């Protein structure tokens, strides 16, 4: 499955957005990216902190290499870039929309800008996922209740438990499913949807 989070060489695949791994905004400067990397490296390097793992540190290094190689103001730094379907990302590249401004105009010309903006707003409104083994509290995924392909991307409907006690629901990509039981459930929902389509 390719949800747009692959490195340029195609050999390494991140399960999460590299900006999320580094905990920086897409508009961050190279200096801010480097500071965030150093801060995270101190927390995650297994030989330094003792609390991180080699896998977490490797993910951080891959994310840093991917993000720092991007030019400020490039299409990949636009907040809507991760929400574009693989097809729209491909055609944006093919048609030479290299800057964030060109990408935005391209989406407006296609009439898809408002759809992607809505998806982006939903994602911002959704609480962050919490690992089952985490004792940090906060919001957590209660259940997966649906599967769809939206604008060329696979998405699962996630039911969240919020701090206020109310449950909410949003459509999310596979990367937010950060535990093995959730991923197995996601695979089951995908298989059921494929069986329905085949019938």
Summarize the entry for a quick read.
The chain is an alpha+beta fold.
Report on the architecture of this protein.
The protein is of the alpha+beta class. It has three domains: about 1-70, DnaJ domain (Helix Hairpins, Orthogonal Bundle); about 70-125, no CATH class; about 125-199, no CATH class. Helices cover about 45% and strands about 15% of the residues. The chain has helices at about 20, 30-45, 55-70, 85-95, 100-110, 115-125, 180-199, and strands at about 140-150, 155-160, 165-170. Strands 1-2-3 form a three-stranded antiparallel sheet. Helix 2 runs antiparallel to helix 3 (about 55-70). The chain is flat, with a radius of gyration of 18 Å. It starts with 17 loop residues before the first helix and ends with a helix. About 20% of the residues are buried.
Strand order of the largest sheet: 1-2-3
Number-wise, the strands total: 3
- Content-based structural category: alpha+beta
Helix content: 40-55%
């Amino acid at each position: 499955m390719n949800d747009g989070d692959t490195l340029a060489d195609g050999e390494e695949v991140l399960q999460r957005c590299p900006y999320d791994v580094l905990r920086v905004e897409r508009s961050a400067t190279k200096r801010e990216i480097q500071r965030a990397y150093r801060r995270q490296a101190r927390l995650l390097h297994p030989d330094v902190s003792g609390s991180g793992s080699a896998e977490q540190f490797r993910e951080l290094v891959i994310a840093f290499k991917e993000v720092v190689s991007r030019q400020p103001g490039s299409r990949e730094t636009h907040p809507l870039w991760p929400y574009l379907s693989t097809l729209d990302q491909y055609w944006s590249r093919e048609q030479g929309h290299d800057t964030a401004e060109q990408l935005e105009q391209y989406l407006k010309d296609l009439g898809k800008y408002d759809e992607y903006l809505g998806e982006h707003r939903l994602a911002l409104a959704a609480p962050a996922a919490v690992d089952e083994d985490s004792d940090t509290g906060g919001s957590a995924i209660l259940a997966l209740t649906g599967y769809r392909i939206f604008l060329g991307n696979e998405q699962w409907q996630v039911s969240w438990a919020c701090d206020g006690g109310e449950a909410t629901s949003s459509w999310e990509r596979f990367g937010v499913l950060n535990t093995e039981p959730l991923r197995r459930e996601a695979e089951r929902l995908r298989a059921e949807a494929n069986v329905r389509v085949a019938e």
